[in-house]
Structure formats: C-alpha cells, structure tokens
Amino acid sequence: MDTRQIRLGDETPEVAIVNEMEKILQAILNGATGEEIAALPLPATYRAAYVRKEDQTMWEGVPSNEKDPRKSIHIGEVPMPELAADEVVIAVMASSINFNTVWTSIFEPISTFGALARLGKESKWAKRHDTDKHILGSDASGIVLRVGSAVRLWNPGDKITVHCNHVDDQDPSSHSDSMMGSNQRIWGYETNFGGLADVAIVKANQLMPKPAHLTWEESAVNALCNSTSYRMLVSKNGANMKQGDVVLIWGASGGIGSYAVQYVLNGGGIPVGVVSSPEKAAILRQMGCEAIIDRKAANYQFWNEDGTHNEKEWRRLGGDIRTLVGEDPDIVFEHPGRSTFAASMYVVKRGGTVVTCAATSGFMLEFDNRHFWMRLKKLVGSHFANYKEAYEANRLIAKGMIHPVMSQVFTLEQTGEAAYQVHNNMHEGKLAVLCLSPEEGLGVDDHELRAKVADKLTWFRR
Ligand code: NAP
Predict the structure, then answer these.
(1) With a 6 A CB cut-off, is 360 part of the ligand 1 pocket?
(2) H-run or E-run covering 294
(3) Which atom of ligand 1 is nearest to the CA of 385?
(4) The pLDDT of residue 18
(5) What structural domains does the chain harbor?
(6) Whole-angstrom Cα distance, residue 412 to residue 96?
(7) Which residue, judged by its Cα, is nearest atom 16 of ligand 1?
(8) Residue nearest (by alpha carbon) to ligand 1 atom 26
(9) pTM, whole model, 2 decimals?
(10) What is the mean pLDDT of residues 413-419?
(11) Is residue 321 within 8 Å of 329, Cβ to Cβ?
C-alpha cells in the first residue's frame, strides 16, 4: 500500500511533511497555476527508491543472475537537499526502470557509491550527492516546483520530462558535444537525487517539455532510451543512418532496441530485428518491422564450450540476414556485448558501421580483426546523448512521430520487482513507475494528437 495514503490525516511531525507532499499533488491534479505551485512549501523529506551503502558488498562472489534487486532496493523517506542556483526541484509524477537501475541495484560492474564519492569531491554543491543512500532513477516526468536563482528558461508549474545527461556547463570540454565533457555523468546513476522518487533535483539543462498527448507514465519512459537510440543511429555522432540502410538491431523489443526500430523505419531504413520469443516478434510486426530473427529459435552458438569462437555460426547469422533482406547490414545496433559482438563485427557490410553503447552479457569483447580491417568496417562507441540530441528525440515523441514503448506500470513501492524483471529479461519495451501520480492515465492535454496515434501507444501494453 502507498505509505503516503496510510499516513494522510495523521498529526505527527513526520506526517505534516507527508501532507505537504499531498498538498503539492492536489495542486497539480487541480491544475494549479505556476504561481500557486511556487507558493507551496516544500517538504523537508520525500519518498524515494534507493540502495544503501552498507549493502554494497552483500553479494560478493555471487553470480549476477542470483543477485536480486528486490532485496537491495528500499523505499523510504530521504532529506530534501538544498537547491543550487542552476538546478530545479521537480515533483516526479512518473519514472521508469532503466538497465542502469539494475546495475546500481546489483552493485555491478562496480558499486555506484564510488561515483558519488568522486562527484562529492568536485565542489560544495557536488558534495550533497555523496551520501549513504543512492536515490535511483534516470528518467522522470513531472512538474517544476522550484527553480534556482540562475534558472532562466523554466518556471514553477512547467510540465517537463528529464534527460539524464549531467554536465558541468563551466567545463570547456563540454562545449562542442556535452557527452565529451570530462566530468559528464548520468543522473540517477552516477549522481544522486534520481527520478524514482516523489521529488527529484536536476540541472535546468536537463529539462525538456512534456509531450502533451501522453500520460505522465508514457512521458516518463522515453528520455534515456529514446535519446540513446537517436544518437546511435540518427546523429552524426553515431552511425548517421541514411535512407535504405539495412540495420541489424539486437534486442529489438527491449528498451533501446524498440526505439531503434522506430528510427530505422522513420528514416527510410530496413530494420532486421532480433528477439527471443514469438510474442516479441509479434510486437515487432505490429510496429512495421518485417525482417525478424528469433535468436532462441535459431539457437546461434557464437561461442564454443571451450571459449573459442564459432565462425560458422557468424556465417549462419549472416546467411539468415541475407535470406530476409537480400544483403548484409550497413549498420549493426550492438549492446549485448560479449555474446554477440564478434558476430556483429563479422556480419556488418564491407565499409559498414557497428555502433555500440553497452555490453550487457560481458564487456571484455573479442572479434576477428582480419574481417574488420580487410573490409574497412567502422566501430563507433556511443553513450547517451547531448542536450540537443535528447531535445530532438523528445521533439519527435511530442510530435507523435516516435512512440513510447511502455509495457507495464508499477508503483514506486514495486521498484525492486520492476528492476528484477528487467534484470531477468522478463519484460518488453519499458517499465514505467508511478511516483506522485496516484493512478495511470493522467496528464494528457492534447487529446486530438493522442487519438491520431492511439493504436501505436498500445504496441507494447501487456
Ligand atoms: P533491455 O530492455 O533489457 O533490452 C535488452 C535486450 O537485449 C533484451 O530485450 C534482449 O532481447 C537482448 N539481449 C539480452 N541479452 C542478450 C544476449 N546475450 N544476446 C542477444 N541479445 C540479448 O535493456 P535496454 O534498456 O535496451 O539496454 C540494453 C543495454 O544497453 C544495457 O546494457 C544498458 O545498460 C545499455 N544502455 C546503455 C546506454 C548508454 O547510454 N550507454 C543507454 C541505454 C542502455 P531478446 O531476449 O528479445 O533478444
């Protein structure tokens, strides 16, 4: 049950705090003006999902698949931090689970408390992040409650989504592409005060307008995965896809893969989507992806049991792609890492590009360099997106040209369960989490656009 509801009406000091949160929620639900919202007092504490520093060694020596986020993610009250001049306080209506929520909760590949400690050394304001509770979450939709004294473009009452690129805008290295910033970080993963909470603290340059035709939860699932896929495929910083390109997409019904499929289709490319079940294949068909490989059914064995590579199996994958679309991929959208990387580098076309942003199955990668240099292939490393890229990706969502891929909605109390499902690949698309929003379906302002794209908003719904 929601702790907020249990405590409502009680008169203890702790409950007075909870009631402040409730007043904020009521004001939002009643459509209060920005001035009214700015006048509401902020609570001294707020409800959040976090991991504890004291738990960071709890699973030493335990295999990844036995680590259970339901045991390490806690829900409880945390103190409201002081607001810096370039920051805003937001009321989080909804958030989402990302794979980095899983990494933080299983303390792999490293505990994120190290990142908070390093950040904490940078300045007086950065020191706030170095605490023994790491509040998770790199996505959010909500409403601006307060703005710092240096914030110019946003005001209390603004409906927003948040991208997770946390950069120091006084660092010269951030200024041609902020992902190149020497101390660039991912909010809610390498910083504290993340989005899986009733309140979050973000820099003003993380804000983007909330898509008006979407609910709070539909608006909350996009920014991290959608922006990542945009940079990997569309941006000149990534594979710079062109019309007609064949793009092999691993995990095509997963978080980043399901946005990748949409970008390839929108951009006039030909997606070849890899999934692991007939149900996931059916989702891709609905999205308009015709070339689909079920990797479980195909049972590729890219690695031999003795740890050597099986080049025959790379060729079998390449043959399957040619059977489906008649040619080799111009681009491979790579993120499973160790299990697939050598095959990706092999099947990509002469002169083609493998673009990678991750290594879910292991980050020590191997491939046969002979095929790589002799066929003049390219490898591009990609990580999240700069503000411009994230803003462009959000604009496409707001115009109803790219769609949220939300499959299920959880409460904040169920964050551990949602992360457990992502950790164990039991999900499709994105899992949303309701924070302040008391129920699904709220927050829609543009009903006309919603009606136009209604059939696409349910592609992934269970
Ligand atoms: P996700 O929702 O779990 O989707 C990943 C998909 O990959 C799964 O649906 C699964 O699809 C497929 N997959 C998993 N293991 C595989 C394997 N061994 N071989 C082939 N396919 C496999 O996760 P996500 O949100 O898309 O994120 C994917 C990865 O990218 C994660 O490691 C995440 O941390 C990373 N990421 C990085 C950035 C960045 O900015 N650098 C941003 C977002 C995500 P099937 O089982 O259907 O094949």
Answers:
(1) yes
(2) strand 291-294
(3) 40
(4) 53
(5) 3-225+385-458 (3.90.180.10), 239-381 (3.40.50.720)
(6) 10
(7) 336
(8) 255
(9) 0.96
(10) 98
(11) yes
